[in-house]
Design brief:
Layout (H helix, E strand, L loop, with lengths): L6 E5 L3 H12 L4 E5 L2 H10 L7 E5 L7 H8 L6 E5 L4 H9 L4 E4 L4 H41 L1
Parallel strand pairs: 1-2, 1-3, 3-4, 4-5
């Protein structure tokens, strides 16, 4: 069983917000990497296959790609997204949640509501990873048994 500290990626162009979130997450035993833009985060995510945070905290409005564009590029990767925004727009909220966001919080957000959203996302990621690991183990065992039966 893996007891490593979960890792969350925080993508926000406001350094003070990123640092505050990083400290808040650290206070509950969650590590956080920070990125100023969606482009910087996606570069790391796409160029380093082993870099898979348990959750992404994503600002909606940033220079370059906005939060929805980053979420779209991540589609199918199974990494839960928690949106944060200073400009709560109903249409954007609806689109983000419809595309699978775990939460959509307006800044300044309540620390406990934010932490609960992240905890829920991290648990969802851990559950998905456990299912994938079990499926991979079952497939490997089935392939091994099939190979043994062919030899017999």
């Amino acid at each position: 069983m893996n007891h490593a500290m979960p890792l969350v990626a925080v993508v926000d162009d406001d350094d003070s917000v990123s640092r505050a979130i990083q400290r808040l997450l650290r206070s509950i035993g969650i590590a956080a990497d920070t990125f100023k833009t969606g482009d910087l985060f996606l570069h790391r995510f796409e160029s380093t296959p082993s870099y898979r945070p348990a959750c992404i905290v994503l600002d909606m409005h940033m220079p370059g790609l906005n939060g929805l564009q980053v979420q779209q590029r991540l589609s199918g990767n199974g990494v839960p997204v928690v949106f944060i925004t200073a400009h709560d727009e109903a249409e954007l909220r609806q689109r983000a949640l419809a595309a699978g966001a775990m939460a959509y919080l307006r800044k300044p957000f309540d620390d406990e509501a934010f932490l609960e959203a992240v905890r829920t996302a991290v648990r969802a990621a851990a559950s998905a990873a456990a299912v994938t690991d079990a499926s991979t183990a079952t497939e490997a065992a089935t392939n091994s048994a099939s190979a043994a039966n062919r030899k017999a």
